[in-house]
Amino acid sequence: MIEAKEIMEILRHRYPFLLVDRIIEIEDDKRAVGIKNVTINEPFFQGHFPGIPIMPGVLIVEAIAQVGGVMLLASRKEKRMIPLLGGIDNMRFRKQVFPGDQLIMEVVLLGKKGNIGKCRGTAKVGSCTVVEGDMMFAFIEEKAGV
Questions:
Q1: Domain tally, the chain
Q2: Which of 82, 97, 127, 141 is buried most deeply by CB count within 10 Å?
Q3: Do the domain assignments include residue 68?
């Protein structure tokens, strides 16, 4: 299990854009499962949508991508690379996510060649799939001061 403090040592994201609370399962560079506890205090609920708080789909996709980033970087001793989202394929939004929901996100590595790779990501609330699709990523080298 990887807790929030260690996630912040692995990823460069910070509040309000860090969207993973905990990694509950991880298998090297192959698979990871993470959790995002969705609360009414999320800043995006002020405008999406007033009176009908629905988590933006794009942020669910970003949360899935962050679980993938942790999966790809956690086992590396040298964490000077940043995984960037390179593409999204066949992404489907099946249900809405509301305050009080717990997103359970699973990412499975489909393949990697050099600094480019592809993952399959799924987000569920309970046993109900809310978002699923494929994502491409590319690693770039972190540069000091940039």
A1: 1
A2: 97
A3: yes
pTM: 0.94
CA–CA gap between residue 45 and residue 21 (Å, rounded): 18
3-state secondary structure the chain: CECHHHHHHHCCCCCCCCCCCEEEEEECCCEEEEEEECCCCCHHHHCCCCCCCCCCHHHHHHHHHHHHHHHHHCCCCCCCEEEEEEEEEEEEECCCCCCCCEEEEEEEEEEEECCEEEEEEEEEECCEEEEEEEEEEEEEECCCCC
In angstroms, the CA 125 to CA 121 distance is 14
Place of tokens 């007033």: 50
Q: What is the pLDDT of residue 81?
A: 80
- From the candidates 22, 31, 48, 118, give the one annotated as an active-site residue: 48
Q: Which of 119, 56, 51, 37 is nearest to 85 (CA)?
A: 119
Q: Find the domain containing 108 and state its range.
A: 4-141
The domain that holds 99 is classified in CATH as 3.10.129.10
**Quick one: pLDDT at residue 135?**
98
Q: Two tokens at 112? A: 């990697």
Q: Which residues of the chain have pLDDT under 50?
A: none
